[in-house]
Design goal:
Elements: E1 20-21, H1 32-37, E2 97-100, H2 102-106, H3 124-130, H4 133-138, E3 159-163, E4 169-181, E5 190-197, E6 203-204, E7 208-209, H5 216-228, H6 233-246, E8 252-259, E9 269-279, H7 282-287, E10 296-303, H8 316-321
Parallel strand pairs: 2-3, 4-9
Antiparallel strand pairs: 1-2, 4-5, 4-7, 5-6, 5-10, 8-9
């Protein structure tokens, strides 16, 4: 599945199963000990719940926008105004659309061997073990609603349950930001590898979901090769050699870790990612041929700053804008 949201396409969100409206009231989460055991992390805009004992304040002014937008494989969301996004703001009669994709239910890991989805009922201990980049960074506890479902750290989205995401709470991805200086254009502008998502048709970073027990570094290279390296067998060895030279520890620089403003997010399930920057040397950038894999409709080197660049999927433009240009001089 494409990017940061990579393999999520694999967790297809076709066939909306029952779509209904349900209440989204928030309830306190038990003991302080329980809260401490689920402490996690964040970095984009985040508003949180005030349950009396601790007030989780807004650290950033930006609110999620894409997480309140329509997705082609989701039913329509309830509209949520900016002022009503924070859990601390009260909305009388808030009844978000309740949706979980059929494919998510069919891949319940407690029922299907090799299933990639959580069971239908959220497990607080499992969510705590998984952790959250967004909450860890903020040193804030995960909050749960009265039904025991984790609450999106940024706020309301107009949809509850898991949508097309397999995990309750954070769904972890890894996004490789691969750049080069284009030698064939005046001024050698900076370009980034992007793939076209099959679900929304938007250009995005070629990333994917981190498998259970998998190192983020492994996910970064695997997803890049799967989505941008579908080369003929005769070229496979050369491509893997070039990728090996690109995805080295010394060449990788983390630029972002936290919440992703993604149209698949819901009140109870959301995307988080680790975005790493890998810059190609002039030689490597020229030799690295790109071929779209099964999860992507197309792949290209996209010039940073162009109108197409400004329309990248989810929070991807924001993440690329955070790279250190000192690493891109060559």
């Amino acid at each position: 599945m494409p990017l940061c949201c990579g393999r999520c396409v694999q967790q297809d969100v076709s066939e909306p199963s029952a779509s209904r409206r349900t209440g989204g009231r928030v309830s306190p989460v038990g003991s302080q000990k329980e809260l401490t055991s689920t402490t996690l992390d964040s970095s984009i805009a985040s508003t949180t719940l005030d349950d009396g004992e601790d007030k989780l304040s807004v650290r950033h002014t930006q609110l999620h926008v894409r997480a309140r937008s329509e997705h082609p494989r989701y039913p329509r969301r309830v509209q949520v105004l900016d002022a009503h996004v924070p859990w601390s703001s009260s909305i009388e009669g808030y009844r978000p659309t309740d949706f979980v994709a059929k494919s998510v239910l069919e891949n319940d890991c407690t029922v299907k061997e090799g299933g990639w989805a959580d069971p239908a009922e959220p497990d607080r201990e499992a969510i705590a073990r998984r952790g959250s980049y967004e909450h860890e960074k903020r040193r804030l506890p995960v909050r749960f609603d009265e039904l025991g479902r984790p609450l999106n750290p940024v706020g309301r989205t107009g949809m509850c349950n898991r949508g097309g995401l397999g995990k309750w709470g954070p769904n972890h991805a890894a996004d490789p930001i691969v750049t080069r200086r284009c030698p064939d254009k005046p001024g050698t502008p900076l370009e980034v590898v992007v793939i076209k998502r099959r679900d929304t048709g938007e250009w995005a970073i070629p990333g994917g979901m981190v498998d259970a027990g998998e190192l983020v570094s492994m996910t970064l290279r695997r997803e890049f090769e799967e989505e941008a390296g579908n080369v003929p067998e005769s070229e496979r060895e050369r491509f893997e050699d070039l990728a090996g030279r690109l995805f080295t520890e010394a060449n990788g620089h983390e630029v972002y870790r936290g919440y992703v403003d993604d149209p698949r997010n819901t009140d109870n399930a959301w995307m988080e990612t680790v975005a790493m920057h890998f810059h190609c040397s002039p030689e490597l950038g020229k030799m690295l041929a790109l071929h779209a894999g099964d999860d992507a409709a197309d792949v290209q080197w996209l010039e940073v700053g162009t109108p197409e660049y400004k329309k990248l999927y989810a929070s991807h433009k924001m993440m690329i804008d955070m790279i250190d240009l000192d690493h891109c001089r060559a």
